[in-house]
Each structure stands twice: as structure tokens, then as C-alpha cells.
Amino acid sequence: MDLPFYHGPLSKRACERLLLQEGKDGKFLLRDSESLPGVLCLCVFFTLLLFSEETLTGSCSSVFISSYECSL
């Protein structure tokens, strides 16, 4: 994927550090899941909270399968 917000195989911790560096509400990135092949994680920074959603990508749609909230 050649998108500026796609970071490939990035760990949750590395993702958190990257989003915290800028610290802007609405900053987001897309990364590969560490544990589920073919699953993408959408990580969004919002008012000192980091939200992450894992999505299964298919030919027709995306399905949210889990989320976690990281208090910073």
C-alpha cells in the first residue's frame, strides 16, 4: 500500500509513540496487526487517548472485530 498513513508492520507500542510525538487530535495511522495476518489496525489519537480498531479487510467491506483504549 502506498499511502502516507499506512505504516506496515508496526507494533502497538511503536504506534503509540509515533502518534504521541505529534500529539494532535485526529492524527491517525494504519498498521498491520501483530497477531492476525491480513488484519489492519486503525489507530487514532484524540485528547490524550489512543484508540485502535482492528479491521478485517475483504473485497466488499471491513468488519470491526475488536478495540482497545490506551490511557496516556
Automatic annotation (TrEMBL):
InterPro entries: SH2 (IPR000980), SH2_dom_sf (IPR036860). Residues 5-44 form the SH2 domain. Keywords: SH2 domain. SMART domains: SH2 (SM00252). This is SH2 domain-containing protein. It comes from Monodelphis domestica.
